Amino acid sequence: MLDKRRKEKFEQYLLTKRTNMCRHIYITYRYFNEWAQKKWKEDGWKNIRPEHLRLISILGTDVVNNNELAKRARVSKQAMSKMVTDLESHGFIDVQPDPNDSRAKIISVSNNGVEFLEYFQGCNKVISKQFEEILGTAKTEKLNALLSELTEGILAIEEKQGIARGIKS
Fold first, then answer.
1. At what angle do helices 50-59 and 21-42 cross, to 10 degrees?
2. Which among 2, 64, 142, 156 could bridge 68 via Cys, Cβ 3.0 to 4.6 Å?
3. Where are the domains of the chain?
4. What is the mean pLDDT of residues 54-71?
């Protein structure tokens, strides 16, 4: 049972739900994640998850080693190794011995990975249409412009802080 002060604080929180930006971003992210995973499976991309997309996007056209990828993604080397193994086993990335370091491997996006990214662009168009149905074209375009500006600002802050994500806006 909540005491009176906590109950009042909770009721104040409930009143701010319509203006809570983090909540809105989270719900939108969750919706997209759930929608995308269902669509990907329906369309035959059964072995890819949103975190895989993140890695393939961070990798881009670069050829890098596991440590660099882990740094860019801000995850442990062990977590990155697991994801690399998973993506390689499903053919989304290529892993080769590093000619400069016999202990290391170099990682690059595979043809299948590029094919998925092309497919993903189509998914973006579908989800954008859904947003347009809710907001209308002008508001959807404005939302996209604002989110782009916000992303560029966040990436600039992270760059100043020395956070390397390998993400380009």
1. 90
2. 64
3. 23-160
4. 83
